[in-house]
Amino acid sequence: MSTPAERSGRRTTIADSAIRIIARDGVRALTHRAVDREADVPSGTTSYHAKTRSALLEIVIDTLSERAIADAHHVTISLGSELVSRDRVSVAELTDALVGLVDTLVARTDDMRARYALILELADRPDLRDRLTAPGDVHEMTTRIAAAALAKAGVPSDVDQVEALTGLTDALVLARTVIGREPDRTAAIIGNYLRGLGEV
Fold this sequence. Notes:
Elements: H1 4-25, H2 32-39, H3 45-49, H4 53-84, H5 91-107, H6 109-121, H7 126-133, H8 137-152, H9 159-179, H10 184-198
């Protein structure tokens, strides 16, 4: 009989393999057999951990959501310790921090591609889709930290501006993940946006 640690490890292997399949071949390529092959585990292993395709999708979504929460915590801690604790930050410093966020997310290419594919494919499954898109407590915390950082950089920091900046960073992650946009454009785009805010 397997231990809880072994079961958890096998579940992680299944989730990682499923994410790779979705990122490479699309959501419709996700089957229990495909995951068994990708994970190089005995046939039926994935079915043991996820009886249905919906259960398999839940494992993937739970994994992606957990990693997104970890990313948000990382950003919150990074912005909080490096920027918000100081009396003043420059637009260049804030730009560097936001570029670092985009770079961190883009580095997890398979996760981001799988996330986008699932958001598009699961339009008829709001119960699953909303777990990837609905804002939560971490989003609220990140929004507060971002607003404080904007204010200390001397640019507008109301909710609308924070949401717009979040949308911009999301778009940059999408462009670099899906389209392959040049990474050196990220700093220029964010910097120009922040400087434009300061002139409003």
